[in-house]
């Protein structure tokens, strides 16, 4: 269905020019990970103000921890899918490749992507609320809320509504956007402001291509929509790019 559009895109992508991929929850859907705003998404059943805000955490840290712990347990079973893996192979072909993700599930790095900016943090990192020290942990906890050895509450090192983006990561993402020749926007509703903010930086010079089974909040800002699951369309795009790119000796 998308054959022609994907072939044209493959022709237009110059692997020596900067390529940015901006992903959201949809790329992990085919790994069995729930999205947020689809009809069966988290925010259809739960209130983000309760589960993903500093105020919600202050009000009921146990509730918040139980939700993150359930997600961590589910994610321990999840594997990267062909969409994640296609991006790893694309990075290997491209001289200047940046992957900007809103996802906290760690599946891009699990697949092997290298230059990844996790804008919303990682569910696998914990932060002490007193010292702000952070570390990686795949522990499964037995009692909630979870505390640091120092006695203070721990929290997942993810960005909650109302919190500031990490300035260093944000600057790197903005710079990548400003020099991109092509931006692939994969599996995001674009409902969180950072997506349109980043696309604005690229829209003057870059071709913006959306990969999504459904039209989204940012479809109008994109030049092309590749409709369908990313786990099918990204490997197809990769194949077309590989077939025009001579293999490195
Ligand atoms: P959303 O749940 O808002 O959007 C998911 C998008 O993925 C929708 O546009 C779907 O149509 C699309 N989609 C579903 N299945 C797909 C597939 N197989 N292939 C491609 N696309 C597919 O998720 P995000 O846009 O990522 O914040 O949400 C942004 C942020 O809002 C999240 O990072 C999260 C949430 O609050 C934090 O965790 C901090």
Layout of strands and helices, then pairs:
Elements: H1 3-12, E1 19-23, H2 42-45, H3 48-51, H4 54-59, H5 61-77, H6 82-93, E2 97-101, H7 107-111, E3 116-118, E4 121-128, E5 134-136, E6 154-158, H8 167-179, E7 182-186, H9 193-202, E8 207-212, E9 224-227, H10 230-244
Parallel strand pairs: 1-2, 1-7, 2-3, 7-8, 8-9
Antiparallel strand pairs: 4-5, 4-6
Helix pairs in contact: 1-10, 6-10, 8-9
The protein binds 2'-O-acetyl adenosine-5-diphosphoribose (OAD).
2'-O-acetyl adenosine-5-diphosphoribose binds next to strand 8 and helix 10.
Low-confidence segments, given as residue ranges, are none
Strand content: 15-25%
The shape, in one word, is: elongated
CATH superfamily annotation of the largest domain: TPP-binding domain
Secondary-structure element sequence?
A: HEHHHHHEHEEEEHEHEEH
Mean pLDDT: 97
Number of domains: 2
Helix content: 25-40%
Q: Kindly provide the radius of gyration, computed on alpha-carbon positions and rounded to a whole number of angstroms.
A: 19 Å
Bound molecules: 2'-O-acetyl adenosine-5-diphosphoribose
Biggest sheet layout: 6 strands, parallel
Query: Taking strands numbered 1, 2, ... along the chain, how are they ordered across the largest sheet?
Result: 3-2-1-7-8-9
Termini separation? 34 Å
Q: Count of DSSP helices?
A: 10
Which CATH-level-2 architecture of the largest domain?
3-Layer(aba) Sandwich
Which fold name is given in CATH as the topology of the largest domain?
Rossmann fold
The total strand number stands at: 9
């Amino acid at each position: 269905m998308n054959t022609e559009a994907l072939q044209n895109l493959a022709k237009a992508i110059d692997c020596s020019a900067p390529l940015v991929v901006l992903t959201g929850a949809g790329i992990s859907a085919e790994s069995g990970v729930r999205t947020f705003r689809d009809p069966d998404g988290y925010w259809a059943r739960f209130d983000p103000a309760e589960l993903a805000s500093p105020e919600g955490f202050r009000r009921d840290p146990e509730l918040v921890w139980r939700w993150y712990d359930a997600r961590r347990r589910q994610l321990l079973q999840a594997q990267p899918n062909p969409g994640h893996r296609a991006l790893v192979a694309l990075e290997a072909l491209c001289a200047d490749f940046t992957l900007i993700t809103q996802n906290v599930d760690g599946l891009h790095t699990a697949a092997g992507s290298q230059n990844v900016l996790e804008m919303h943090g990682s569910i696998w990192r914990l932060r002490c609320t007193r010292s702000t020290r952070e570390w990686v942990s795949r522990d499964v906890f037995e009692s909630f809320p979870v505390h640091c050895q120092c006695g203070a509450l721990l929290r997942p090192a993810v960005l909650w509504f109302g919190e500031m983006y990490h300035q260093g990561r944000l600057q790197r993402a903005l710079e990548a956007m400003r020099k991109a020749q092509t931006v692939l926007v994969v599996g995001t509703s674009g409902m969180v402001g950072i997506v349109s903010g980043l696309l604005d930086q690229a829209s003057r010079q870059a071709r913006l291509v959306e990969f999504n089974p459904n039209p989204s909040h940012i479809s109008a800002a994109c030049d092309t929509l590749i409709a369908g699951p990313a786990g099918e369309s990204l490997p197809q795009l990769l194949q077309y790019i590989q077939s025009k790119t001579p293999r490195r000796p």
